[in-house]
Amino acid sequence: MPPDEEETVAETRGTTDTPAESRPSTAVTDDPTAAVLSDTELITVAPDVLAQSLGEYFAAWGRRIRNGESGALPIVVGLIAIVIFFQVEQSTFLSSSNLVNLFVEAAAYILFGAAEIWVLLLSEIDLSVGYVAGVGAFVIAELIAPPVGLPWWLGILGGLVVCGFLGWVQGTLITRLGLPSFIVTLGGLLGFEGVMLEIANIDKSAVGGVMSISSNSPVYNLVNANMSATLGWIALVVVIAVFAAVTLVGTARRRARGLSTGPMSVTILRIVVTAIGGFVIVLICNFNRGNLTTLEGVPWVIPFILLIILGYSFYLSRTRAGRYIYAIGANPEAARRAGINVARIRTLGFVMCSVTAGLAGLAYASRQGSISTDIDGGNLVLFGVAAAVIGGTSLFGGKGKMLHALLGGIVIAAVFNGLALMGVNAAIQDMATAVVLIAAVTLDSLVRRRATAR
Fold first, then answer.
1. Tell me, what's the pLDDT at 31?
2. How many distinct helices (H) and strands (E) make up the chain?
3. How confident is the model at residue 156 (pLDDT cuts 50, 70, 90)?
4. Which residues on adjacent β-strands are paired with residue 211?
5. Among residues 243, 249, 273, 274, which one has the least CA distance to residue 261?
6. What CA–CA distance (Å, rounded) separates 46 from 87?
7. Is 82 inside any structural domain?
8. Which domain range does residue 46 map to?
9. pLDDT (tens digit per residue) in 387-428
10. Is residue 245 pLDDT above 90, yes or no?
């Protein structure tokens, strides 16, 4: 269900403590032939705002799952199964050092998946994100290195602006000329690889097509440096406090406006679950992972990724442009008739896709300590699509969340990491990832058929 449906449904009834069984049914009065929706059916549509107790909330989600609206549950269950399998095969899989390595490995997959989600929500695709990331990484590396020597933050900004421009060009060709996104971005895949090679040829400091990043640069330290253990705990407390305050204030505002809100127990449960998750991550990262020297703390890339995912999630669910993206992906003609500037929003989606690809290129270059012309942009885009789809984003538009990129990226990283611990070669790793991807697409197709049948 698109995010804006939540408030729409919420306005159809007020907050009350009366049990669902005793509340009167709600009917559409404009049409005497319209079907009557019971309160139980309404709660099932939007349990977050219409359920009046914790038990009613879980019962509503249970009905949604039985109706084929399982959300991210299958991928979470699948991830748990993957973790159990690899832990049984290799007892070091759940060690703190390996888990932190897994989180770091997942960073690029998550960002490439987030890039693809921007266009998949519009029922489009972008095959060029791998080499857009390469171009962005080269620009960043050149801007922060001598002789240019810009501050690191200005170098990153310059790289993202270049990536955004590439996305704008492709989006304009697709929306204004009506060209298929598959063809345009396929051309981008080839063309931007050439641009990347030309940048490396022009810059004399790129030896053998490799542009190194100084180990003293914050760009390098993004992936290769950690917070102190104390700073990690302080950051966790601050983040949880802010999250709790925003959640509680948002609930209070909805009540003040007379809108339906879920039970306070559900709100508190969300805060508690978030706090537990954050505590576990910080605890794992703060274990000493070094053999000869002390190595502990949360890698900077983890809060970097979480901040991006949270910011994107807020934009898609709480802003007008974000909701327009869902509307266009679900039904572009209806969105056009509703007065939405479809061409502008679709172009925006491609711009955001390329900017996110630039962030992925930043994380990739930071992990490598350099950026080179042998970056495999073709494989990276496939991993991006795989991360988005495995996480639960639909290939047919209008359905998906940034959380899906996070889940899908972790799944891909877990598969590669676990198979590498088992000593499995790269060919088997690729085939295993392919099986997971096909299974996820199959599940998405079956869920949609079941929902349509009902």
1. 46
2. 19, 4
3. very high
4. 371
5. 249
6. 37
7. yes
8. 4-66
9. 998 888 888 888 899 999 999 999 999 998 999 899 888 788
10. yes
